[in-house]
Amino acid sequence: MRNSLRCLVSLIVAAAAAAPASPRLIVSGWLPTTWDYENSLKSLVENAAIISAVSPVWYWVRADGSVAARLPQWKSGPDPGPCEPEIKAVCAKYRIALVPLISNSVPGKGFDADMVAGIVNSDAVRFEHVRTLTELVVGRGYDGIEIDYECLHGRDRDAFSRFMTELAASLHKKGKVLAIAVHPKIAEPGDDWGPMAHDYAALGAVVDRFRVMTYDHHWASGPAGPVASLAWFTQVLEFTAARVPKGKIEMGIPTYGYDWTGSKTGKSADVDARDAAAMAQRLGATVFRDSESGSPHFSYRKNTDEHQVWYEDAGCLPAKLAAVRKAGAAGIAVWRLGSEESGFWKLLAEARRDRRR
User: Fold this and answer.
1) Would you identify the CATH topology of the domain 2-256+313-355?
2) What pTM did the predictor assign?
């Protein structure tokens, strides 16, 4: 089975290098393992026939280029714990590519741009990081790795692209896949809080899977509004497709939302799509679908505070999938497994069947 999976991964690499539009919708999923793991694993197992690749959120990068397992507490070493054999077994059974995610988030601090700057601008540390990641992927039997280095300094744009080019070459020599999660944007170079550091053309030329995080258009600490409006999603998709080989592009699909207190206070709580409708019913609120963005929303009052809830449900999916198909992109990446509602996967199964016709 592992030999068959290696062949599948080799085909993915070759197809991405040739960069044709995929004839079948690729469905990747990000899978948290340090929170809500039970629901995430359940979603992976129940929908394994639809999922092409899974990226468990398993690793942190460290300043010296080494890797730390992402466990409830900071821990040195590469072992992500008991979830690894469980997820590996599912991937082997259903021939799902296993491409773990490594990020530059630091417990208690958030995404650390300075740490990544120290790695990518040093020949010695960058070399060590490439070597460590390659050995991690090969040694633990993964099919590749996904780089999720966010909120980087714009001045590190070229250095980050150089790092990714070197990592791609190293992984490809071993027959492994390189994926990247990038900030969404509709113009180059983009804003200097992260998007500027992601050079779409340069990165798209070397990676195998180009995953655009098309969500948080309205974010947790900002004003209330749709998390991923259709118009904005389409703009980002068209911009990406003009710069990245279409056969590599996976557009991010959120399955969550936020409960904002007021419209401009910047205070919000997370809401999973699986819970939103029941939440509205419990509160006696009416759910409306915004005609412009396509997103559902409702409001309610608690004490003296007015709340607005915006989220992404299964009803948002058909229009986004149609846009992906029209652009000739490879598929989608779901953030995140376990937070979606059940109808989400029925729509995806139908879309995959239609894509093969």
Assistant:
1) TIM Barrel (3.20.20)
2) 0.91
